[in-house]
């Protein structure tokens, strides 16, 4: 489990159905959505009790021209499980 003061970073690209795994999507297509926003990711993280912090104007490293923002969360779980839970919550809320 991750320890220390480093937050877990969640980019909207992780949940975008229009991206391939090679382009940065981290969830299965059945849990991905079209054009997710940082605010959607933050609201899903908040619903899961993760205390999100939105940073607008930040870009996913492989697409620096698209400044979609990112969400920072602190949790005592693996990043993969957090990403999957957030993805399921976004999908169910749409």
How would you describe this protein?
The chain has about 90 residues and is α+β, with helices and mostly antiparallel strands. The chain has one domain: Phenylalanyl-tRNA Synthetase, Chain B, domain 1. The chain is built from 2 helices and 3 strands, in the order βαββα. The chain has a 3-stranded antiparallel beta sheet with strand order 1-3-2, covered by helices on one side. Helix 1 crosses helix 2. The longest helix is centred in the last third of the chain and has 15 residues. The protein is globular. The N and C termini lie far apart (about 30 Å). The model has no long low-confidence stretch (mean pLDDT about 95).
Brief summary:
This protein is an alpha+beta fold. The chain has helices at residues 38-47, 79-93; strands spanning 8-10, 53-55, 70-73.
Uncertain regions spanning at least 5 consecutive residues: none
CATH C-level class? Alpha Beta
- Note the run of SSEs as H and E: EHEEH
Q: Give the terminus-to-terminus CA distance.
A: 30 Å
- Count of discrete structural domains: 1
List how many beta strands DSSP finds: 3
Q: CATH H-level name... which superfamily?
A: Signal recognition particle, SRP19-like subunit
Principal-axes shape call: globular
| C-alpha-based Rg, rounded | 12 Å
Secondary structure class reads alpha+beta
Helix content: 25-40%
């Amino acid at each position: 489990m991750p320890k220390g003061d480093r937050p877990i970073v969640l980019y909207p690209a992780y949940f975008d159905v229009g991206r391939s795994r090679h382009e940065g999507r981290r969830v299965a297509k059945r849990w991905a959505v079209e054009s997710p926003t940082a605010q959607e990711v933050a609201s899903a993280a908040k619903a899961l009790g993760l205390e999100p912090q939105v940073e607008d104007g930040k870009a996913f490293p492989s697409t620096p021209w698209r400044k979609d923002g990112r969400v920072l969360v602190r949790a005592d779980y693996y990043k993969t499980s957090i990403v999957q839970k957030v993805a399921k919550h976004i999908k169910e809320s749409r």
